[in-house]
Design brief:
heterodimer; A: 152 residues; alpha/beta; 5-stranded parallel β-sheet; 38% helix; 14% strand; B: 748 residues; alpha+beta; 7-stranded antiparallel β-sheet; 6-stranded antiparallel β-sheet; histidine kinase (chain B); chromophore (chain B); transferase (chain B)
Chain lengths: 152, 748
C-alpha cells in the first residue's frame, strides 16, 4: 500500500504544472489535492468532507506557502503542534525567496523548503526529486504504514 | 528726610504708638465733646488760649468753654451726622478772651468723641478755599498727556512750593523694596538738594506707612515744639488712649523731631500719593524755619496730591498697557515664526532676535535634547549646562526669574557680566528642556542719603530710639544685578509657555501620526517587494511552464490540451500585467495628494454601475441604489474605492440569479456612512482581519479572479480621507461593506 502525497495548492496553474511534473516522475503514489489551508487541515484531521477517508498520514505534504484563508505557515504550525501529525514530513513549496518566509518555515521545523523554479524543466525535476525522496527513499516515522514497493 | 519718618533703629520704631501719642502740637488746642455736647477732654495748653486750666473746662458746654459768640458759629455745624471721621473745616472764630489772631476750627468724630481742633492763624478772616481751585486748575493745565511721571512730579513740587512757601518740596516714590527714590524737587536753595537720592525703607516704619495711607496730609509746624498733653490722658468714653490718627494737631514722635532737627528742617509737611490703593510715594515739604500752613492751603495741597496720584495711575496704566501690547506683539510674531518649519530648535533659532526683544534680554538659549543653541550674550555651553542642572534641582513651577542670579547660584558669579538676570522657562514636563533669557549686569550707582548699611551701628545714644544723624550723601555701586523683570514680561512669558507647550503637543501628535504613517508605508513597501518576488513570479513561471509543455509535446498533444495551455499562458500574462498595474496604482494611492471637492455620490455610483454592466451582460443583476448624500472628498479616489467595492459585489454574486446589490448612504453630524451589500457567497468572518490586507485573497484563484489588491486600495483611500472601512458577512453568505467619510476632512 502506497502512502499518498498531500498536495496543498490553490493556484490552478501551479496545480496543473505540479500534477504534470508528478506524473512525469512516474510515482505511483496517490496524490491528494486540497485547495487551501483549511481543507488541508480537514484532510489531516479526517474531518468534514474527509471524515470517511482511510486512516493514516500522507507520506509527505507538499505545502504552498501562500494560501487563501489559512496560509501555509499556519498549516505547518498546526501540524507541528498536533501530536499525531508532528512527525509527518512537510515540504514548503513556494514562489517566495523571501528570507523571512524561509526563517519562519524552519522555525516551525519544516523538513524542506523548495522555491518553485521558473524554468519548467527544472520545475519538473524538482517536483520529481521531491516525490522520489519523500515518498520513496525516505523512511517514514514509526507508527506509519510501511511503504510497500508496488509490483511492476 | 521725610517729615513723618519716625526713624531707624533697632526695630523698636515699628512698635512706637504713633497713633496714640497722648498729646498734640501746641500751635492750637483741642477740645473733645461727648454725645451731649459736654467737654470731656482738653489739651493742657487751653490755658494759654482760653485763660483757664483744662480742669476748669472739663464738664462745660462749648459756649462756656470758648464763649457764646464762637459757640454760635460752631454748634450748628456739629449736629448729628455732620461731623465725619476726617477733619472738616467748621469755621474761623475769634475768642472772647482776646488775642490778635483767629482760629480755624476743624472737627472730626472718632471713638465716640467729637474732636474740635482750634488752629491758631494769623489772619483774622475766615479760611479762604477759593485758591484751591485755581491751584488744581493751573496744575492740570500744566500737565501734558505725554508727560512722564517725573515731569508731572516736578510740576506738582513747583506748585506746592508756591502755595505753601516751604523752601524745598520733594516728590518721591517707593520702589518694590520700599526704598524711597526722589523723582522731583523744587528748591529755593535754603536746604540741600536731595534730587535722585534714595532713602532706605527702614527710614519709614511700617505703622507710619499705614498712617500715611489713612491720613493723606500731615503738618509739623515747628520741630522744636513742646507737646501739649491731653487731660485726662485717656478718652473718657473708651478709657483708652485717644487714637489721633486723623487729628491735624497730632503730636509726632520725639525721635522724628530729632530726625528733623538733624536734617535742619524745622517745619515739614507731607502729602500721601495713593496709587491703586497703595502708598506709591509722598510729596514731602521742608523748611529750615518753623512754618505754618493753614487748613485751606493744606486742603489745596491735598487736592493737588490726589490729582497727581490719579495722573500717575493713568500714566502708569497707559505705560503698562503700551508695554504689554508691545510684548504681546513680539510674542505673536515669535509664535508665528515657531510654527514655520519642522525642527523646533531650528525654528527657535530663527526667532532669536524677537525672543531677545520680547524679554528685553541680551542673550537667549534653547536647551532641547542636550542640544544647546545660544544667541547674543550668554554664558558658554558648559556654564549653561551647569545652570540647567541647578535649575532642575532647585526650581519648580512654570517659570523661574531673578535679577540677581549669583546670589542664588554662586557659580553664576563667573558670568554675571553677561547674565545677572535670568528668566528660565521649562518647556517640557518630562525632559530638561528650557528656554533661557539672560540679562546683562546693570552696574549702577545708588546715591543714598546716608549709608543705609551703617544704620545698625548708630546706637549708643541714651534713648531707646535714636534718630539718624547723618544725611550726607553716600554712593554705592551695585554689582551682580540686572534690570528687574517686569511683571508684564513674566505674565507674557507664562502665556508664551502655554502657547509653546501647545505647539509642542501638536507637534508630538503630528510626529506620532507621521510615525504611524511611516509604519504603514513600511509595511506596504514590504508587501510590495514580497508581491514582486512572490505573486509576480507565479504568472511568469506559469507562462514559461505551459510554453515549455507546448514546445515539448509539439503536435503530439490533443488540440484541447494545447488550447488549454495557450489559454493558461494568456491568463497568466494578463494577470502579470494586472498585478503590475495594481501595484502601481496602490503605491500612487499613498503618494498622490487629495483634491477634495463636493462629490455627488449618486453620479459616481451610476458611472461605476454603467461600467460594470458591460462585464455582467447576460447576468441578472438587480441594483438598488438609494438616494445618496453628498460628501466632500477626492472624486477620483472615491470613485476607485466605489468601483472596487461594487465590482467585488458583482464578482462574489457570480453564481446568484438574481444577484442583488444595494448601495445606501446616510449622514450624521460627524460623518457620512455608505453601505454596499450583496447576496453573494460572502466570506468566512474568521479571516475578516485579512480582508483589507495587500495581496490577500479569501477565495481560490479560479473561483474569483483578482490580484487581491482591490480591498487594500479601498481601505487606503478611505483612511486617507480620515474614514474607516468594515466588512461583514452573514452565516448564509452575502457581504456588507461599510465605509465612512468624515464631514470635515483631516488637514493632511
Amino acid at each position: 500500500m502506497l502512502k499518498p502525497i498531500l498536495l496543498v495548492e490553490d493556484n490552478p496553474h501551479d496545480l496543473e504544472l505540479t500534477l504534470i511534473a508528478l506524473e512525469k516522475s512516474q510515482l505511483a503514489n496517490e496524490v491528494i489535492v486540497v485547495r487551501d489551508g483549511a481543507e488541508a487541515l480537514d484532510y489531516l484531521y479526517a474531518r468534514g468532507d474527509y471524515a470517511a477517508r482511510q486512516r493514516g498520514n500522507p507520506a509527505v505534504v507538499l505545502l504552498d506557502l501562500k494560501l487563501p484563508k489559512v496560509d501555509g505557515l499556519e498549516v505547518l504550525r498546526e501540524i507541528r503542534t498536533t501530536p499525531d501529525l508532528r512527525a509527518m514530513p512537510v515540504v514548503m513549496l513556494t514562489s517566495s525567496r523571501e528570507e523571512q518566509d524561509l526563517i519562519r518555515s524552519y522555525e516551525l521545523n519544516v523538513n524542506a523548503y523548495v522555491v518553485k523554479p521558473v524554468d519548467f524543466k527544472e520545475f519538473v525535476r524538482a517536483i520529481s526529486d521531491l516525490g522520489i525522496f519523500w515518498a520513496v527513499l525516505n523512511e517514514p516515522p514509526p507508527g506509519s504504514h510501511r511503504y510497500v514497493r508496488p509490483q511492476n | 528726610m521725610t517729615n513723618a519718618s519716625t526713624t531707624l533703629d533697632l526695630g523698636s520704631c515699628d512698635r512706637e504708638p504713633i497713633r496714640t501719642p497722648g498729646s498734640i502740637q501746641p500751635h492750637g488746642f483741642l477740645l473733645a465733646l461727648d454725645a451731649g455736647g459736654t467737654v470731656v477732654q482738653a489739651s493742657e495748653n487751653v490755658e494759654s488760649y482760653l485763660g483757664k486750666p483744662p480742669e476748669a473746662v472739663l464738664g462745660c458746654t462749648l459756649a462756656d468753654a470758648v464763649g457764646a459768640d464762637a459757640a454760635v458759629q460752631l454748634l450748628p455745624e456739629l449736629g448729628r451726622g455732620q461731623v465725619r471721621e476726617r477733619p472738616g473745616f467748621v469755621a474761623t472764630i475769634r475768642l472772647a478772651t482776646g488775642g490778635t489772631g483767629g482760629f480755624d476750627v476743624l472737627a472730626h468724630y472718632y471713638d465716640e468723641l467729637t474732636m474740635l481742633e482750634f488752629e491758631a492763624v494769623t489772619r483774622s478772616g475766615a479760611a479762604d478755599f477759593r485758591h484751591v481751585f485755581p491751584l488744581v486748575g493751573d496744575f492740570l493745565q500744566q500737565l501734558d498727556d505725554n508727560d512722564t511721571v517725573e515731569d508731572m512730579s516736578r510740576t506738582a513740587a513747583r506748585e506746592i512750593r508756591a502755595v505753601t512757601g516751604f523752601g524745598r518740596v520733594l516728590v518721591y516714590k517707593f520702589d518694590n523694596d520700599d526704598h524711597g527714590h526722589v523723582l522731583a524737587e523744587s528748591n529755593d536753595g535754603s536746604l540741600p538738594s536731595y534730587l535722585g537720592q534714595r532713602f532706605p525703607a527702614t527710614d519709614i516704619p511700617k505703622q507710619a506707612r499705614e498712617l500715611y495711607a489713612s491720613n493723606r496730609i500731615r503738618l509739623i509746624s515747628d520741630a522744636n515744639y513742646r507737646p501739649a498733653r491731653l487731660v485726662p490722658a485717656d478718652n473718657p468714653v473708651t478709657n483708652a488712649p485717644n487714637d489721633l490718627s486723623f487729628a491735624a494737631l497730632r503730636s509726632v514722635s520725639p525721635v522724628h523731631l530729632q530726625y528733623m532737627r538733624n536734617m535742619g528742617t524745622l517745619a515739614s509737611m507731607s502729602v500721601s500719593l495713593m496709587v491703586k490703593g497703595r502708598l506709591w510715594g509722598l510729596i514731602s515739604c521742608h523748611n529750615a524755619a518753623p512754618c505754618h500752613v493753614p487748613f485751606d492751603k493744606r486742603t489745596a495741597c491735598e487736592q493737588l496730591g490726589q490729582i497727581l496720584a490719579l495722573r500717575i495711575t493713568s500714566r502708569e496704566d497707559a505705560d503698562e498697557l503700551q508695554f504689554r501690547l508691545e510684548v504681546r506683539r513680539t510674542m505673536v510674531s515669535v509664535l508665528a515664526g515657531l510654527t514655520q518649519g519642522a525642527d523646533f530648535v531650528e525654528n527657535m533659532g530663527s526667532v532669536f532676535p524677537q525672543l531677545l526683544h520680547f524679554a528685553r534680554a541680551g542673550g537667549a538659549a534653547v536647551v532641547v535634547d542636550d542640544r544647546v543653541v545660544t544667541f547674543g550674550d550668554t554664558p558658554d555651553e558648559p556654564q549653561i549646562r551647569a545652570l540647567i542642572g541647578w535649575l532642575d534641582q532647585h526650581t519648580h513651577g512654570d517659570l523661574y526669574h531673578t535679577d540677581r542670579l549669583a546670589e542664588q547660584f554662586p557659580a553664576a558669579r563667573a558670568f554675571q557680566d553677561r547674565a545677572s538676570g535670568l528668566l528660565a522657562m521649562p518647556i517640557s514636563r518630562i525632559h530638561k528642556h528650557y528656554l533661557l533669557w539672560f540679562r546683562a549686569e546693570f552696574v549702577h550707582t545708588v546715591d543714598w542719603a546716608g549709608n543705609p548699611h551703617d544704620k545698625e551701628t548708630v546706637p549708643g545714644a541714651p534713648q531707646q530710639l535714636s534718630p539718624r544723624t547723618s544725611f550726607a550723601s553716600w554712593r554705592e555701586t551695585i554689582h551682580g544685578r540686572s534690570a528687574p523683570w517686569h511683571p508684564g514680561e513674566i505674565e507674557m512669558a507664562l502665556e508664551f509657555r502655554t502657547a509653546l507647550l501647545g505647539i509642542a503637543l501638536e507637534r508630538a501628535e503630528q510626529m506620532a501620526e507621521l510615525a504611524e504613517e511611516l509604519g504603514r508605508a513600511n509595511k506596504e513597501l514590504e508587501a510590495f517587494s514580497y508581491s514582486v518576488s512572490h505573486d509576480l513570479r507565479a504568472p511568469l513561471r506559469h507562462i514559461v511552464g505551459f510554453s515549455d509543455l507546448l514546445l515539448e509535446a509539439a503536435g503530439s498533444d490533443t488540440p484541447e490540451k494545447r488550447g488549454r495551455f495557450l489559454k493558461n499562458i494568456k491568463e497568466s500574462a494578463r494577470l502579470a500585467g494586472k498585478l503590475v498595474d495594481d501595484l502601481l496604482s496602490f503605491s500612487q494611492m499613498g503618494r498622490a495628494s487629495l483634491r477634495p471637492v463636493r462629490v455627488n455620490m449618486n453620479d459616481l455610483v451610476r458611472s461605476c454601475v454603467d461600467k460594470l454592466m458591460l462585464d455582467t451582460q447576460g447576468r441578472n443583476v438587480q441594483w438598488h441604489v438609494g438616494s445618496l448624500p453628498e460628501i466632500v472628498a477626492d472624486p477620483t479616489f472615491i470613485q476607485l474605492a466605489l468601483y472596487n467595492l461594487l465590482s467585488n459585489a458583482v464578482k462574489f454574486t457570480g453564481q446568484k440569479d438574481p444577484a442583488i446589490i444595494r448601495v445606501d448612504g446616510r449622514t450624521s453630524a460627524a460623518e457620512t456612512v455608505f453601505e454596499i451589500s450583496d447576496n453573494g457567497v460572502g466570506f468566512n468572518m474568521d479571516y475578516v482581519h485579512k480582508l483589507f490586507g495587500v495581496f490577500q485573497r479569501l477565495h481560490r484563484m479560479e473561483d474569483f479572479q483578482g490580484t487581491g489588491i482591490g480591498l487594500a486600495n479601498v481601505r487606503r483611500i478611505v483612511e486617507r480621507h480620515g474614514g474607516r472601512v468594515e466588512a461583514q458577512s452573514g452565516p448564509r453568505g452575502g457581504a456588507t461593506f461599510t465605509f465612512t467619510i468624515p464631514n470635515t476632512l483631516p488637514s493632511v
